[in-house]
Each structure stands twice: as C-alpha cells, then as structure tokens.
Amino acid sequence: MLHLLSLTTEELSTWLVSQGEAPFRVQQLESWLYQRRAESFDCMTDLPTSLRARLRDTCRIWSGSVVEHRTAADGTHKLLIEWPDGHRIECVLIPDGPRRTACISTQVGCAMGCVFCASGLDGVARNLTSGEILEQLLRLDRLLPAGVRLSNIVVMGMGEPLANLDALLPALERARSKRGLGISPRKITISTVGLPRAIDRLTELGIGYHLAVSLHAPTDELRTRLVPVNRAIGLDAILAAAERYFNATHRRLTFEYVLLGGVNDQPEHARQLARLLSGKAALLNVIPYNPVPGLEYQTPTPRALRTFVELLRQAGVNVQVRVRKGDQIDAACGQLRRRLAAHA
Ligand code: SAH
Predict the structure, then answer these.
(1) What residue's CA is closest to ligand 1, atom 10?
(2) Residue 29's domain spans which residues?
(3) Are β-strands 152-155 and 188-192 bridged in parallel, bridged antiparallel, or unpaired?
C-alpha cells in the first residue's frame, strides 16, 4: 500500500497519470489531504467513484494508528502513534494563546545518547519516513476545530532531526507549502544536538527555518559527559556552524540548556556560558530538567535557577525560562512511550 503522505506533488501526479487520470486530480486529492482534513477516500466526493475505489485498494492516507490520546488540563494533546512495524512515536499539540504548536518526532528513539533524555535510553531503532513525519502534523491539525490550523511547528520530539534531514525536509516542504499547511519557515523550529555538517546543509538550503541548538554545558568536558556525541564534535565546531547559519539567514539563533540540579546549574557554569555567548545575537532557552523515571538527575532548586538566570542576564545574555506544558500527560521527551512500554 502506498502511503500518500510520503509522495511529493510530482510523484502523486505521476502516479495519477499512470492510473489514466487527468493531471488536475492531484490538486483535488491534495486539497482533501492537506486542507479539507479527509479521513478516508470515501469522503472525496469530487473524485470519480472509480478513482476512489482504486485509491482505497492501493493507497492509504494514514500509515500508523493512534494507540493512545491523552489530553491535559492546559489543553495539551499527546498522541502515541504505532506504525505497521510495531514501533511507536509521540507527538504533541500545544495550544498557547494564539499559537497552536505541533511538536513532532523524526526517529524511533535516538542515537545521540544525552544522559538525561528518555528518548535515547534504548538507542535508535530507525528513521521515520517523510510520510510518517507529515502524518503527525496532519493528525494534530485534525484535533483543532474547523477553520483553525496549526500555526507553529517545533521539531523537538523523539530523535535527532539533523540525523534524518532527508525525510524531514520534504515533510517540512509540505508544511510550508500554500497547498500544504501554509506555515512560514520562521514558525518552524528545528532543534538539534548540534551536527555541524547538517547545519551547513541547512545553511546552503537557505530556507530560514528557526534553528535551536541544544548546548547543555559551557565546556567540552562537561558537555561530553551530558551529550556523548559531543566528544567527536566539540563546542567550537557547533558554535561556528551556528554562526554561519545565522549569517546566511539572519534568523535569531536559540540555544537550549537543560538545567540539571547540581550538575550544570552552578554560578561558575553561568559565567562560563555568558562568556561563550557574549556578542552573539542569540536567545538562551533555559529548560529545568523534567524528571525521567529511572534517571537520578534532579530538577534545579528555584534558587539555583534564579541565580543562574540572573548571572546570565547581568552579563547581557537574552535568557528565557521555558514554561513546562503537558507534564501530567508525560508530554515531555519520549516519556509516554516509555511509560506505556513499561506497562506493556
Ligand atoms: N535531538 C534534538 C531534539 C530533542 S528534544 C535536540 O537535541 O535538540 C528537544 C529538547 O528537549 C532538547 O534540548 C533536549 O535536550 C530536551 N530534553 C530532553 N530530555 C529532557 C528532560 N528530561 N528534561 C528537559 N528537557 C529535556
């Protein structure tokens, strides 16, 4: 069965023509998939019955099935999707004032090995396809009332997006397209552990997605302990690649810093970080550690958090503390999948 969401407009058009259909059918079909929120081929009433029957026999809109749908009091929705091979991933819808943000996954698991993150505890099983990435967006979009669409995307779910750019980019192409979801690239944030060569590929692409780089430590010694892939990369190479991205796109960079109590939240870390970021037009997003069952890290004390932020602000760094949403439904970082797997 063909997963229609994996096909580009050209591929879809070629398929239709190979079935003896007129090329303009591609617009109708895409409008049902991306605009009119079709759940099945039967509702595509402006397509000939014969084409609908062929689509039913040979293609599918959805590849996965939603095995769990949780809703939190703050309006956050979390979906756990299972693919035909049994692998599961998570995606989240976060309504926030006028914004409706989708947080999506790019891999089953993750190979980066960040020691405080639930997604990578069992390594990576496989990359998601572009259709599977797009399916998350469309399923979250369909949770919104008629006429209300997703406004933002953060690629901050399971996996390392820059390790699966070949699948991510076509999915984001659909997200940006007027005939897709129509979301501007500046409202699409790609969060990365910092893979310089892939950052350079984004720089060359020149689309201007918002890039967020996960730093988590101001020195290579500490960063390699928290983010093992750092050993072969190093902060200098990451910051240089981020700088090239900034120079080419003029998008403000964001650095993320998960604050782990007693580990990377000391005044000396704040001072080192301030030196590292001085003179950069960057936003520092401080994220208090969200406890992962089975891991021994601590959320920073309110006092440590305050001091950390204060020292950076005094040094002129633009800091924001990220508010947590969806905690009660395990909407953070690969946690739902783990909890359900543990109970399976
Ligand atoms: N691989 C990408 C996207 C992953 S998740 C990256 O590394 O950026 C997005 C953010 O959530 C990352 O900054 C990641 O470090 C952070 N994160 C992971 N586990 C966390 C936890 N337990 N508490 C708080 N933030 C966490």
Answers:
(1) 156
(2) 2-60
(3) parallel
